[in-house]
Amino acid sequence: MVLWVQVRELETDPLFNSGRGSALTDKGTVEMEASIMDGSNRRCGAVSGLTTVKNPVSLARLVMDKSPHSYLAFNGAEEFARQQVLLFMVPFFFRILDKKLSQPHWRHVVITLSFITHVHVISAQIYIL
């Protein structure tokens, strides 16, 4: 789960298109999602429609580890985050103010990080402007 920690840090960096710095909806709001899988025991957790949870990947991991569900969305995901005492931010935190970084002509580049443990491959995709 080393990549979980790295992705959590990238979600806080406004230069990455996840967490802080997320792409905006047509209404100018942020709706975030995240998912995580553990292939060694076939568990997974996913969340979507988040607007105030600072690190969506942390909530996805809690869904995997501390919930009977594999996917929570919108109000249900936010309520579960409150029950788990995760860090919340005001929605403005997730928007980047530098207009150059939010121009629609910029292309997103996907970087896939992978490494092999003794049993399985762990990977994560990171979207960069």
What does the model show?
It is built from 3 helices and 5 strands. With 129 residues, the chain is of the alpha+beta class. The protein has one domain. The strands form 2 sheets. It has a 3-stranded mixed β-sheet with strand order 1-2-3. Helix 1 packs antiparallel against helix 2. It is globular and about 40 Å long. The chain starts with a helix and ends with a strand. About 20% of the residues have low confidence.
In short:
The chain is α+β, with helices and mostly antiparallel strands and 129 residues long. The chain has helices spanning 2-12, 56-66, 74-83; strands at residues 32-38, 43-50, 71-73, 109-116, 121-128. It has three helices and five strands.
State the distance separating the first and last CA atoms: 25 Å
Give the topology string: H per helix, E per strand.
Answer: HEEHEHEE
Helix content: 10-25%
Overall pLDDT metric:
77
Structural descriptors:
129 residues; alpha+beta; two-stranded antiparallel ribbon
Write the layout of secondary structure elements.
Elements: H1 2-12, E1 32-38, E2 43-50, H2 56-66, E3 71-73, H3 74-83, E4 109-116, E5 121-128
Parallel strand pairs: 2-3
Antiparallel strand pairs: 1-2, 4-5
